[in-house]
Amino acid sequence: MSLKTGQRAPNFKLFNTQKKETSLSDFKGKNVVLLFYPFAFSGTCTAELCNMRDNISVYNGLNAEILGISTDSVFTQLKYKEDQKLNFELLSDFNKETSKEYGSLYENFIFGTQGVSKRSAFVIDKEGMVRHIEILENASEQPSYEAIQKCLKELN
Fold first, then answer.
1. Residue 151 falls within a domain, yes or no?
2. Is the pTM of this model over 0.85?
3. Which of 32, 34, 40, 45 is catalytic?
């Protein structure tokens, strides 16, 4: 399935770092920035998520929740969140279902790994509609933070 702007965002149920099931529908009434990323503790992923951490006040001011999603385990996500002092939820898509549903899954990735989340950004509005999509084929690139913020400003 190829997700498009204007469509309803697929709901999901994933576990956060506190082993609590979290769903997209839990955030109804808030804008959500979904950030899929390949690997916890890798250079570009850390730069991306730390950028979001350092600019959390901007996203809070735009009535947006940030959710980081990767195929890493809940235990890896917890250690990563603690080490990087991330101030938003990280969700484990260990079974790869959500990454696949959002079109954000590398079938084959570096070092022979298979089924790794593609670096991508989605903005979901308060009603659960997709308003921005950026799926990067090159995992060493980062999403456009300016485009994400511009979309959020337009939603408010």
1. yes
2. yes
3. 45
